[in-house]
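Researcher: Please translate sequence to C-alpha cells.
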Amino acid sequence: MLVDFDGVMVNATVLLNGTVVSSHQGGYLPWSTELTTGLVTGRNVLAIIVDARWLPVPPDGAAGGAPASTTCSPAASTGTPR
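Model: Translation complete:
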C-alpha cells in the first residue's frame, strides 16, 4: 500500500504504528511512501510529523552554500524599494 503526498514543505517524517517508515526533506514536491511491510491486522495508526521551519541550508546540499553571486542583498539604506 502506498500513501501519496501532493507536497510537504520542508521536512516530513511518516510513522506507521510508532515506527518511522519514511522521511522527506526539501521543497513542496509530490512524493510517495510504501506502507505495506508495516501494516498489521486490525487497527493501524498513521502519523505524519511536519516541520515547516525554514533552515539556512545550501539548496544543493554542498558545504558552504550557494555562490555569493546568488545571494540577496538588503534594500538601499534610503528605504526606497528596488
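Researcher: Any highlights?
Model: The longest strand covers residues 19-26.
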